[in-house]
Design a protein that fits this description.
By secondary structure, this protein is α/β, with parallel strands linked by helices. It has helices at 11-23, 65-71, 99-106, 112-122, 132-157, 195-203, 216-219, 234-237, 283-286, 314-328, 347-375, 379-385, and strands at 2-7, 28-31, 43-45, 51-53, 60-62, 77-79, 84-88, 91-95, 187-191, 208-211, 225-230, 247-257, 267-269, 278-281, 294-302, 309-310, 333-335. The radius of gyration is 23 Å and the shape is globular.
Length: 386
């Protein structure tokens, strides 16, 4: 009998498997319906020998020393600061919008103080910032909003920014200096040998059994286990009883080109042209040299395909709350991760959420065994009584 069945071998499932097996001595079965571990962070060496990300570019960044220290037990790191350019009116400009972006776009020569005044003159005053449009126009005005954000967001989400919660475009800051890094987090690294190697290290423990190509529905009720950790879509767990929660998907087109380098940075965004949102060139992430080929990925947003992004809209938050009420009523099923808690979380946030979940499970198990010792009651009796 397994102590835990873990559904999904992404960050949420794998971190919990490691903690429960390694720290708490539990027997764990982790399953994934895909043919690999790592969830959406899975990477592999393609035919050109380049390490590519099957589900689009995954750049690790965090301000959490705890998350960084935890993952550092399973990987070495390669320092990497992410930079993104975006194509507007035939120019390649830094995004997040910064001093260089504005000066190059409008052919100006502002300094930081001048740019602050410029933004003050074009920003739209908003009493309340509710939507993703409000966020951007209140900072940089309508022209920059339309050139850099409106088209990209419509393509990425299938909704206008005015129809999306402010949290979506709030991920992208506005800068008045020339800092062109995509993130400013304290820790910015890529796993030296890739994510999949890191996941292998997380999961290589005698108490962890892995079953790939296995859907939860195929083994539910067949393999005995005491508790479940579930990191798939929460609406699927409950057979969509309140209706489907929307998740935005992407189609990835991977290509290898006979050139040493395609673009000057890892990611180039296309807010206003093409059906794809961005092109990623992986050699920038890995620092791989010694090949005259390069591998790239185009991302085409769609509603069909694997669920990737919860869609931050008020009606979806409301629907999620109904599923959460059902989830909270199941003491032996724990919902963790981006799909199961319907949160637009980055990798580090999912790791933090999994570590917090582990601490809760651990405290509960300490509590139940203490109560058991004191009262001579079984765990099941304690749970039934509490
Ligand atoms: P997942 O990685 O989705 O893992 C869930 C797993 O559960 C999947 O492998 C799935 O196959 C499995 N599963 C689902 N249902 C079942 C079932 N019924 N039976 C069996 N298995 C099941 N984050 C960053 O920090 N930096 C980035 O640069 C970044 N870039 C991203 C780019 C893209 C294109 C996307 C889509 C996401 C990006 N993220 C990034 C977010 C990152 O992917 C997530 O935060 C992280 O992977 C979530 O981990 P998870 O374990 O919650 O979910
Ligand atoms: N965004 C945009 N233009 C850009 C970059 C981002 O409009 O050039 C918006 C878009 O809505 C996107 C959101 O900001 O979904 C968050 O961007 P991020 O790069 O964090 O998206 P992710 O990497 O999660 O897809």
């Amino acid at each position: 009998m397994f102590d835990y069945l873990i559904v999904g071998a992404g960050f949420a499932g794998s971190v919990l498997a490691e903690r429960l097996a390694n720290e708490a001595g539990k027997k764990v079965l982790i399953i994934d319906k895909r043919n690999h571990i790592g969830g959406n962070a899975y990477d592999y060496f393609d035919d050109a020998g380049i390490l590519v990300h099957k589900y689009g570019p995954h750049i690790f960044h965090t301000n959490s020393s705890e998350v960084f220290a935890y993952l550092s037990k399973f990987t070495q790191w390669r320092p990497y600061e992410h930079r993104v350019l975006t194509t507007v009116e035939g120019k390649l400009l830094p995004i997040p919008i910064n001093l260089t972006t504005v000066n190059t776009l409008y052919d100006l020569n502002l300094d930081s103080a001048g740019l602050e005044k410029f933004f003050d003159s074009i920003r739209e005053e908003k009493q309340y910032i509710r939507t993703s449009e409000d966020v951007v126009v209140s900072q940089v005005g309508r022209d920059l909003y339309e050139k850099f954000f409106r088209g990209y967001t419509r393509k990425q989400w299938g909704f206008d920014p005015s129809e999306l919660d402010k949290s979506v475009t709030s991920r992208i800051p506005t800068r008045t200096n020339a800092d062109d890094r995509y993130f400013t987090d304290e820790y910015q690294f890529m796993p030296l040998h890739g994510y999949t190697r890191m996941f292998n290290n997380l999961l290589s423990h005698p108490n962890i059994h892995i079953m790939l190509n296995t859907d939860f529905g195929d083994i539910e009720g067949i393999i005995p286990y005491k508790e479940i950790i579930y990191s798939g879509p929460v609406d699927e767990y409950f057979d969509y009883c309140y209706g489907k929660l929307p998740y935005r998907s992407l189609q990835f087109k991977h290509e290898t080109l006979d050139v040493a380098q395609l673009q000057s940075v890892a990611v180039v965004n296309y807010p206003n042209d093409h059906a794809y949102t961005r092109i990623t060139e992986y050699k920038h992430l890995t620092g791989q040299t010694g090949t005259n080929k390069t591998s790239i990925t185009y991302e085409f947003p769609s509603w069909d395909g694997d669920p990737y992004y919860p869609v931050p809209r008020p009606e979806n938050a409301e629907l999620y709350q109904k599923y959460k009420t059902l989830a909270d009523a199941l003491p032996n099923v724990h919902f963790v991760g981006r799909l199961a808690t319907y949160r637009y979380y980055n990798m580090d946030q999912v790791v933090a959420q999994a570590l917090t979940t582990y601490n809760k499970l651990n405290q509960r198990s300490v509590l139940t065994s203490t109560v058991k010792q004191k009262n001579g009651k079984s765990t099941a009796q304690y749970r039934a009584a509490s």
